[in-house]
Hints:
mainly alpha, two-stranded antiparallel ribbon
Amino acid sequence: MDKNIGNIYGIASDETSRIEKERNDYKLLPLADWKMTERDCLEYCYSKGFYWEENGVRLYDILDRVSCWCCANKNKKELENMRIYLPEYYLRYIELLKKIKENNKKRSSSREGERTIYEIILDLQLKW
């Protein structure tokens, strides 16, 4: 990669493990450099009129992270708040989990002894 070109990453100063993992010569971390915490960044966005609302609910009031509704990293508090405040997303989330579980059952019973696509891709990467 050309070291004269940089990529800007939105990693806040209180995301220390991410800063350690991501920092290098071509990754710019201005929020961390400016000592802006996640809370500082959120307050700045609010002061500029960005609220991330859904159905009249401010998402950062009920969720730790506002990202994909189907994120597998949702914690118990977020799932409970989705159930209460965003029931349509919660129901979609539950249906998705059921499909994944069913798909995994089918795969494990019908593909016993067969390689998964992930194993095939890994083999190809090792050969390159």
